[in-house]
Each structure stands twice: as structure tokens, then as C-alpha cells.
Amino acid sequence: MAIKKSVSPLKKLLQELPQFHGDLTRWSYCMQGAFSEEIDDGAVAHLTAAFGSYHPQWLIDSKPWRKVQGESFKMLRQTLRLSITQAAAYLRVKPTTIARWENEKSRTPFAALEAFRLLLASVHFKCSHRIWDGWFISAEGTWVSPNVGKLAFKPYEFDYLPQLHADNSKLRFENDRLRVQIDEANAENTRLRKLFQEQGVTKELRRMHGRIGELIAGTGTADVVDFSVTKPATKPRRKAA
Question: Rounded distance, CA 129 to CA 64, Å?
Fold first, then answer.
């Protein structure tokens, strides 16, 4: 009895790729990991009836040929960093419903799984971080800051941010250096003003000293007036008999 060799999924896909030549939609499905029978049957066939032969990439990315499983939903929820309570609030169901989906006790709706998948792939989720709180992307494609009025940044402007930070650091360093020089200059100016004032007082004292010397010299050369008082003559006393 001959033993039938099993073919690996990757090898099977490589064997099927040539037959998809010219059918770009089937090629895209194959590149996402879908086999021929999965493309021709089930959900993919249902989508072909609705969309025709061309399937948009976002539709192919939903991997409609795969069975919706609670474990896949749980992995998406955890990747989104959502608690069961938060996931239930977002999908507008009860937390017990989320638990039943993840425990395979009830069927997980494709819409719920797809909502989480699209959310994870969206730029809004990628920007949903506390450090970007309040920021958003406008309809014109610019990043709008909540901190500086209506300031908006275009993508190419972010390329200049490293240079702006470098220039800002240089300017701050130069500003600090100039502040030190200004403080030193102010201190020197204060010292010189004080010295100037002290020298002014010294000059005034020297001028006064010179004036006093002139006054003393003038007094030494003046005529001296004799203000002595002449005493009156005294009468001789008589001798006692």
C-alpha cells in the first residue's frame, strides 16, 4: 500500500501560483495565504457575487476565507490593549457577551472581529497614545497640535524637527554664554562705578585739604595785633605809727 505524502501549505501555495497568472485578485488572495478551494467556495465566493472579479485590497486583507474564532478576537482585543469591559463598551454589548465569544461558547460575529482589525490597522489607533493626547489628523492630512492654537504640521515639516532641535540647543547654549558675559560685565560696571565714586570723594577731600592749607598760610603772614591790657598804677601804702 503506497503512503501518500502530505504537502506543506506553503508548497501547495507555490504550486498554485502559476495558475493565477493574469488574475490579479486571485493572485492577491493567494499571496495572503488563501488556497484555490478557499477562493472558489464559502465567503470569498459570496463576495465575488457581490463585488465581481475585482476585490479591493481592504477586502482581501479581511481574509474572508478564514473561520471567525473567539481566540482570534481575543488576540485582537489584547493587541488593542482593551479590557473586556472596554471592548464591550466600544461594541455596545455586555462584557459577558465578549467573554462568551472568546471562550467559544457563542459564535463571534465577523463584524466585531473586522471592527477590531480595521481599528488596529488605522492610523488613529497608531496615534492613540497618551503622549499624543489631543492631537489629530485633519482632513487636509496635517497633524494638528492641541497645545499651540491651531498650529498644524505637514509631513515634510517633521523632517526638519531634528535640525530645529539642534539649532535650538545651539541658540540656548549661546544665550547662556552671553548671559554669563552680561553678568560679568554688569559686575565690572558696578565695581567701576563704586571706584569712580570713591575717587570723587578722595578728590574732594584733597581739594578741601588744599583750601585749609591756603587759609592757614594766609593767617601766618597777617599783622599781629597786640590785645594786651595796661594795668593802672598802684598807690604806696602808709607805714603804721
Answer: 30
Pairing of strands 152-153, 136-137: unpaired
> Which CA distances in Å does 212 have to 160, 198, 206, 218?
77, 21, 10, 10
pLDDT bucket at 5, cuts 50 / 70 / 90: low
Collapsing DSSP to helix, strand or coil, 233 comes out as coil
Domain boundaries of the chain, sorted by first residue: 9-61, 67-121, 129-155, 160-215
How much is the average pLDDT of 83-108? 96
CATH superfamily of 67-121: lambda repressor-like DNA-binding domains (1.10.260.40)
User: In the predicted model, is pLDDT for residue 205 greater than 90?
Assistant: no
pTM for the predicted model, two decimal places: 0.50
DSSP-derived 3-state class of residue 144: strand
